[in-house]
Each structure stands twice: as structure tokens, then as C-alpha cells.
């Protein structure tokens, strides 16, 4: 077998961001500056880092960003009020509600309150439903990033057998929907699956999105499989800690044809696709406004 290839998420995300920067430039030429509002409720340290990185990346590609920090004891109604204001603000194209939310907040109500046209995380049921019907909608960022890496690595995905390990609403399920849309044959595994390891071993493509360090090793993989490791797990190293994926990288490496490292694989793709979704949302909203203005002109003349 050929030497396994490392799938470089940093380089791939830099290329996506470069394309986004160009598209922002095209919109600016039409006097449209894409704008993203990020809402953070409470002081979760990891969420603060994620939000800071999203704002930084937005600035880098020319997307205007707004950060809304709400205290940890914010009620659902207060959050809904903020979301309503952002929905009504035509200068905002994308709204991102950083998860997880404090326990007193009704997460589903909050996500459903976001205007689906501004739902750059792709979590609104209208976008979830559209994706499952194979329509072009704002799709969740992490699975979109994974699909991009797979297309870059494998080329044509049609007919390949993909196994998605994990069925969460934010990664596993939308990942399966995107792979189906790309004409893969898709198997989804979860904590109740019988014989998960044997099923996984049949896959040409494995997407691991479980949240268990090193769960998947070479015994789960067919020789030559392409592996995308979504997992981010912090493990104790005795004298500190480090991040690892759901795949036992060193053990899996000799068995695969290509694999993402953790960190440096899927992680950078998530933010890149958030920026991409913000530009898509801005372009669609701008087009809708133009169509509306033209319709008004036609009705007058
Ligand atoms: P969830 O905890 O929401 O879902 C985990 C899924 O794994 C569940 O569907 C669960 O099954 C399944 N599972 C648990 N144990 C097993 C097992 N032994 N065999 C097969 N399936 C199992 O996690 P998320 O989807 O939110 O995240 C998954 C991982 O991805 C985490 O490490 C997270 O940090 C990371 N992540 C990384 C991102 C990035 O940008 N790189 C973005 C988002 C997440 P069941 O449904 O039956 O409980």
C-alpha cells in the first residue's frame, strides 16, 4: 500500500478562506458587506475561545462581526428578544448562537427563533429538513468541512460506502445527509449499534464523531480506508494535557490511505465554512432584496 496521506485541514481551510475573501470583495463592489452576529451566553472558557476565533477569522476575510455577550443567568425570553432584534436588522446576514447554552435556556426554542435565512450554523429545522431532502440550504459547518476534505482527498465520492460513527444533530446526522447527497452509500453507527466495529470495517470512508479518545483503531478499518476524525478530546498526559481525536492515530495510520490529524484536521474547516455560509447568506439576502425592489418597480410602472 502507498504511504498514508495526511489530510491537511489547515491548508484546506486557508484555501476556502481565500475564496471567501474574494467573494466578500465581489459583494463589497456591490456595496454589500456581509455581517455576522455571534451570541455568547455565559462564560464557558472553551466557548469564549471559539467565539474569539470566529470574530478574528471574520475580520480577516472582511466580514463585519458583532459580538453579543449575555450573562450566564439570561432567560430564554431575553435571548429570544436579542435574536428577534437581529432577525429584524437587515444589516445582519448571519446569526450564530454559540453552544452549549446554560441549562435554564430552552436551546431548541432559541435555535428555532433564528431566521432560517440567517441560520449560518444550519441548525434550524427548516434547514435541517431541506438538507435531508437534498436541497441546497445553509448546512452545518463541521460536516460541510468534512465533505470538502473528502472531495479534495477522494475526488468522486459517488457509490463509496461511508460509515458515520455518531448520530448527533450537529455532526453525525447532517454528515450522513451530506454524504447521501454526494451519492455515497451511508451507514450511521451509534452507541446502540450491534457489531459497530465489523460494520465500520466495510467502509471506504469513515467519519468518526463520537467524543471518545482513541475509540477507533486499525481493527475498525478496512485497508486503504479514508478517515476523517471529528473528535476533539482532551487527555491527561501526566505532566499536562493534549488534544486527541476519536481515532487512535498511530495505530490506524498504517491501515489507511488518508487520515485527518487532531488537531489540524477538521477543526479549522468548521470556522472556514462558517465564513462561507455567512457569505452565502449575505448574497442570498441581497439577491432577495433586489428581486423585491424590482417587483415593486414593475408593479408601479
Ligand atoms: P455527541 O456527544 O452529541 O454525540 C456522540 C455520538 O457518538 C452519539 O450519537 C453517540 O450515540 C455516539 N457514540 C457514543 N459512544 C459510541 C460508541 N461506542 N460507538 C458508536 N457510537 C457511539 O457529540 P458531537 O457529535 O457533538 O461531537 C462528537 C465529537 O466531535 C466530540 O469529540 C466533539 O468535541 C467533536 N466536535 C468537533 C468539532 C470540530 O469542529 N472539529 C465540532 C463539533 C464536535 P447515541 O446517539 O446512541 O448516544
Question: Which descriptors apply to this entry?
Answer:
single chain; 301 residues; alpha/beta; Rossmann fold; 2 domains; 3-stranded parallel beta sheet; 10 helices; binds NADPH dihydro-nicotinamide-adenine-dinucleotide phosphate
Account of the protein in words:
The protein has two domains: 20-124, Rossmann fold (3-Layer(aba) Sandwich), CATH 3.40.50; 141-267, Rossmann fold (3-Layer(aba) Sandwich). Strand 2 (35-41), helix 2 (45-61) and strand 3 (64-70) form a beta-alpha-beta unit. With 301 residues, it is of the alpha/beta class. It is built from ten helices and eleven strands. Helices cover 44% and strands 17% of the residues. NADPH dihydro-nicotinamide-adenine-dinucleotide phosphate (NDP) binds at residues 142, 165-168, 170-172, 189-193, 196, 209-212, 215, 230-233, 266-267, 270.
Following the backbone from N to C, one meets helices and strands in this order, namely EHEHEHEHHHEHEHEEEEHEH
| Overall number of strands | 11
Q: By helix and strand content, what is the structural category?
A: alpha/beta
- The neighbouring-strand order within the major sheet is 1-11-8-7-5-6
Total of helices = 10
How would a crystallographer describe the biggest sheet?
6 strands, parallel
The number of distinct structural domains comes to: 2
Spatial extent as radius of gyration: 20 Å
CATH architecture of the largest domain: 3-Layer(aba) Sandwich
Low-pLDDT segments, ≥5 res: none
Amino acid at each position: 500500500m502507498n504511504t498514508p496521506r495526511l489530510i491537511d485541514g489547515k491548508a484546506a481551510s486557508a484555501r476556502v478562506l481565500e475564496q471567501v475573501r474574494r467573494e466578500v470583495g465581489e459583494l463589497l463592489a456591490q456595496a454589500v458587506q456581509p455581517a455576522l452576529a455571534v451570541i455568547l451566553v455565559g462564560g464557558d472558557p472553551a466557548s469564549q475561545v471559539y467565539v474569539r476565533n470566529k470574530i478574528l477569522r471574520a475580520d480577516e476575510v472582511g466580514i463585519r462581526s458583532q459580538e453579543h455577550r449575555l450573562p450566564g443567568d439570561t432567560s430564554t425570553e431575553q435571548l429570544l428578544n436579542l435574536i428577534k432584534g437581529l432577525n429584524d436588522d437587515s444589516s445582519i446576514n448571519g446569526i450564530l448562537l454559540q453552544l452549549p447554552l446554560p441549562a435554564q435556556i430552552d436551546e431548541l426554542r432559541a435555535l428555532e427563533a433564528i431566521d432560517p435565512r440567517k441560520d449560518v450554523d444550519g441548525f434550524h429545522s427548516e434547514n435541517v429538513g431541506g438538507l435531508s431532502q437534498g436541497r441546497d440550504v445553509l448546512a452545518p459547518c463541521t460536516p460541510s468541512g468534512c465533505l470538502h476534505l473528502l472531495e479534495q482527498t477522494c475526488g468522486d465520492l459517488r457509490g463509496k460506502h461511508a460509515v458515520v460513527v455518531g448520530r448527533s444533530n450537529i455532526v453525525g446526522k447532517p454528515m450522513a445527509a451530506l454524504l447521501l447527497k454526494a451519492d455515497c452509500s451511508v451507514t450511521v453507527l451509534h452507541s446502540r449499534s450491534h457489531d459497530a466495529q465489523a460494520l465500520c470495517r466495510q467502509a471506504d470512508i469513515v467519519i468518526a464523531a463520537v467524543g471518545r479518545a482513541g475509540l477507533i483503531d486499525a481493527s475498525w478499518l478496512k485497508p486503504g480506508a479514508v478517515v476523517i476524525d471529528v473528535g476533539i478530546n482532551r487527555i491527561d498526559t501526566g505532566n499536562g494535557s493534549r488534544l486527541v481525536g476519536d481515532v487512535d492515530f498511530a495505530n490506524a495510520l498504517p491501515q489507511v490511505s488518508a487520515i485527518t490529524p487532531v488537531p489540524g484536521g477538521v477543526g479549522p474547516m468548521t470556522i472556514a465554512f462558517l465564513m462561507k455560509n455567512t457569505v452565502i447568506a449575505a448574497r442570498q439576502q441581497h439577491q432577495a432584496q433586489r428581486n423585491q425592489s424590482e417587483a415593486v418597480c414593475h408593479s408601479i410602472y
